[in-house]
Structures are given as structure tokens and as C-alpha cells.
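Entry 14. Structure prediction run on the chain below.
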Amino acid sequence: MRITLVRRLWQAAFLALFLYLAFMTAGLAARLGALSASASFFLEVDPLVAFGTLCATGQLYHLGAFGLAWALVVFASALVFGRAFCSWVCPFGTTHHAIGSLARPRAAKDRCRRNDYRPAQALKYVVLAGFLGAACLGSVQIGLLDPLCLYHRSLATSLFPLIESAVRAALPGGWIYAGEAPLFQGGWAIGAAALALFLANTALPRFFCRVLCPLGALLGLLSRFALFRIARDESACTRCGMCRAHCEGACDPDGKLRQSECLVCLNCIEDCPHGALSFRLLPRESGARPWPEVRDRRLVLGACVGAVAAPLVRLSGGTERSFSPAAIRPPGAVEELEFLKRCVKCGQCMRVCPTNVLQPALLEAGIEGVWTPVLNMRYGACEKNCALCGQVCPTGAIERLTVAQRNGEAPYPGGDAPVKVKLGTSFYDRGRCLPWAMDIPCVVCEEVCPVSPKAIYSVETMVTTRDGTSLAIKLPRVDPSLCIGCGACEHACPVKDLPAIRVTAAGETRSRGWGTRERGLLLKG
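Output returned:
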């Protein structure tokens, strides 16, 4: 029980740390500036995030001496201890184990039967091959199933908003939370997917870890070279099967040990009544299975599917010439094709956004961009004096700007001259605008415009109403050279069903310097 107790304490500690960092609000991040960057700690030590973005971009993103280089620590640990990260550290795996234990049979024979190896456990290696195949073609989709990305995205867009709404309903008055409760489009689907994975543990313990987890597959491949492994003393083993009763990886410790499936939980050592199992340095056991039991052609097929899918989803041109006007990226986001090489859909930027304007994309950025961050002005506006989203991005998809750099008061990273970040441009729908279409005075958009001088101005003119009355009214206009696309005007527009002024991605500054002018304004040439 001593090993089990120590492991559970480690699991609880890392799970608590993960939940704390994930739960950090925008207010905390603002007050604890340096600490806000540590919210991406778990993603920075994720070898799959590091390897996937390395395949896509050809470089390992880091900030100074930190960043994704920390993943080398976990990478090295797998070469020493195998998949110990999965059972000792991974918060998603800890949650799966806790839920699966609730449905654990009481009879030892039934527990052993549930922990038998299943051929479906080879699927995760095919999934890994598919994701890496897509990454090599410049499309990082590992965040869809990477456990740390998936867990944080589910917490940020589903569970935490649900908890906050419940607290607000139970404790009215706003003394705990200020402002409105955060809402996320498609949050129900993200939450439902995570819930389905959790419930699958009632049928098969650690279902996600054994069958789907691409990070576990990567660490499983590395465990082939692990220095420390489970060893069995053939002379003492009676094949009683008790070692399989609490085996978390279904790695057959009483037979030919499957090294790639062993999670180094060490339960088998404690459960063995004869002391036949031990954890030793380079054990001499010829019966172990060092490699995963998956056919090479299936791995090749998975890699080919990923490699074909990456360019296939771009054939519509949705990321370039026929880009969606609603695909407005956060301040500091890199050019779109580079963004898709880096963004792992973790949802950290959405969690720290103080105005709730950052939302998980549905189809605004095409199939390739599902669940990447986009600005939706119906939920909020992008505060011009905020740059928190870049501070927590672990892969550099959103650059870590300062407020001064965002507002053009300091040199932009990698450039010599200051550049004011422009997210897009506002345009009027005159058929819906109250002054333009209905002769109703309204200057809300001009009042809320945060730039100085204001990008929205009014021109007073005389109009003749339907009954022949002459009326002096101010008609609003947008100066594209001053508009930064923050969406304050769209969010505040009193025409709520479909605002009369809307921001599109046209004219965004992030497309400059990358050899493309596809998103430039026509009037800018």
C-alpha cells in the first residue's frame, strides 16, 4: 500500500495544480502578471504538443530558456521510467482512473477480466500516426485528442462556466464574480465529448488512456528504450493472475509484459502474493513485448490519412482567398497558415479573456480551424489595453505582446518600428442602421469607439421623412485607417439580432510581412 499511497498523493497534487492553473481568472492573471504565464505549464511539458508543433513549423517554440523545451524533461523521463507520466502526473489520466474506480467490480476475477489486454488498444498508435502525418503537412490537430489540451478546453468552455453560473444563482449579489457569466459557443459539444470519454471508463477502465490517447502512444513508443521496467521471476510466479486485478494499463504483467502499455503504476508489485514482480534497471527477461502490437501498414495508413486530410481541407481556399470574414483572430495572432501550424486548441486564451469575446470556432475558420480561438463580438469586445491571451499561449500561435506593443507604442516583436495591431475593420449595414435606414438618431457606436481620434465619426445632414418633414440627423461613418477591429461598436449596437455595424477580418495587420495581401482592404491597394 505504500507505493499506491505515494502515487495517489502525487496524482492528487498534480491534479490540484492543474485545476488551479486552469481556474485562474482574467482578474487574477492581470494582478499576478508573471504567474499568468505559468498557466501553460502543463502544456509546455507535453511532449506531443512540442513534437507536433516541431513537425509543423520546424522549430521548438520557447520564450527565453522556457517554453516547449520543458517537454524534453518528460521525454527523457520516458526513456528512463517508461509511461510513468500517464499514471503519476497526467491530470486527465488521474480523473479517468478515479471515475473508473467507481465502477470497479468487487470480485477479483472480474477485475482481472476487465484488465485483459484488448486489440483495440493499438488504435491510439494509428491516431498518433494520423496526427503527426497532418502536422508534417502544416496542420496541427493534436489538440483534438491530446489529453492536456482536451482537458483544459473542456474545463474552460464547459465545466467552469457551469460552476460559475451555479454559484451566481446560489449567491446573488455579484460579490464573488463581477460582470456577466462567461458563455461559449459550442461549449455543450465540447463538454458532452469529455463526458462521454469519462463515462466510457465504466465499461473499460482508463478507456481513453488505453485506446485513444495519442500522448500515451508517443510515450509508449519511447518506453521501448526505458531503463527501468517491470521484471518477473519465473521461478516464483504461479500465474495466479492477481497482478492484473489493479493493472491500469492492461499490460499483462503475468505473461509477456507489454512495455508500451505499462503505465508504471506498480500495482502489480503490491498485488503479487509471491513477490515475483519487481521494478528493476534493465531486467533480463526475454518474454517481454517491447513494441506495440500494431501492424506497420496500419500506421502507414494512419499517417497517409493525416497527410492527405491536411491539404484536402484547404482546397476550398477557406484559409486564404475565400477566407471567412468571421475568422477574426486574437491580438498578436500570427498569419493564418502559421497560426494553424501552432494552435493546439487548448482554450487557455479563452479562459483568461476578461470580456468573453474569444470563442471556440465552429466553422468560421473551416474544418481545420474547429475550436481554435476567434473573436465573436456578440459575446463581448476586445479590450484595447489587454494582451492576456498571448501571455498564456504555449506554442506562439498568439505572440506575447505587451499592451504598448499592441497599441503601437513600442516596437512589435521581430520588427524595428511600432505597429498598431489591427484585428479587422468595421463596416456598416446601412439597411439596418437606425440613422441610415430609419431616420432614428443613434450615436452609440461613435460613443463606445475606444481609439483616439475616434475611428467612427458622424456627418450631419438633412433628410426628408415619409410625411415630408425635414429632419437634421447624424449619419455615422467608419474611417478604416483608424479602425482597429476591436468590436466595441458591434457589441454595443442596439440592433441586437444582427448588428448594423460588424467587424470582418479584412485589413488585419497579421497578414502583412508573410507574402500575402489576401486579407487587405481593396481601397488600400
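The chain has a mean pLDDT of 86.
Filed with the rest of this week's runs.
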